[in-house]
Amino acid sequence: MNSAVSSQKDKNRDLARTQVGLDQRLVDRAEEVKIVKDQLEGLSDQVIENKVGSFPIPASIQPCSRAQRCDVRTLLHGKQDADHNNRRTIERFPARHQHSNNLESNSVNQKFEQLYDPVFTNGDPFPSPPPHTEVAKMARFIVHNSDWAALSYISAQPKSKGYPSGAIFSVSDGVINQSTGVPYLYVTKLELPIQDLRNDSRCSLTMTLAQSSYCQTQGLDPEEPPCAQLVLTGRMVQLENGTLDWNNAKEALFSRHPRMKDWPADHGFFFMRLDIEYINMTDYYGGPVDVNVKDYFNAKL
């Protein structure tokens, strides 16, 4: 009996010690969190005053006024599209975003980079479109600067046969700054749209500047005409392995969608292109315009 009581006391004593240890760890952790929070608040002040190295912060990603206490995470990611497109645009247009070589090497800059490694750009985060009067050039601009498109086609599935249907696909018309005007896709016959296209190859691809940061920075709704969009109509064609067109499609898509290289081989992916027959575009007030296909391919970006 005494032995059991003694054993229980030992267990209680061990539990009490463990609890004390846990309590102390929680206290220590709370102090660490407070220190980090204070550091972040200090860094926020530095960022708001545009003192992070030589990278001025675009007004489009400053959701807080200088009078407000602005958290660094909110400051950087208050507009996620702007942040994402800044990073993507730096890779696409390196000449437009040269980083300064005289970065101040103070402790605030170093600590900020260690915490968040921010990427800021000079000027607009997306290249300016051509004038709306240059319709062929505008059409090429939209296509070349689109990473994805809405594919529209006629369904051949039993429950929706004969009805229009749609799906989103990654697209590319060429390596960055080397536009061909030809939209390429990397697809598999496991996808229903591809099965349906084998039954009827007629389709269209819709692309819009709304997928970039341009419309957001201009304060445009995706449906407003200056947030330009176009529809390419034609027939989808599968490319033969090893041909010049096949190699062009591979380079165009894999350079801009690198994850495609690792997609499962047993899914039987292959390349397709849209043979364009008709182009319709809305890029300004007054209604859509038809773009001559020959002029489209002759346009230079």
UniProtKB/TrEMBL annotation:
Family listed: Belongs to the CREG family.
Gene3D superfamilies registered for this protein in UniProt: Electron Transport, Fmn-binding Protein, Chain A
Cellular component terms (Gene Ontology): cytoplasm; endomembrane system; extracellular space
PANTHER family per the UniProt record, alphabetical: CELLULAR REPRESSOR OF E1A-STIMULATED GENES, ISOFORM A (PTHR13343:SF17), CREG1 PROTEIN (PTHR13343)
Organism: Timema douglasi
Keyword Secreted: yes
Subcellular location: Secreted
Keywords: Glycoprotein, Secreted, Signal
Listed name of the protein: CREG-like beta-barrel domain-containing protein
Keyword Transferase: no
InterPro entries: CREG_beta-barrel, Split_barrel_FMN-bd
Sequence ranges assigned to domain CREG-like beta-barrel in this UniProt record: 130-298
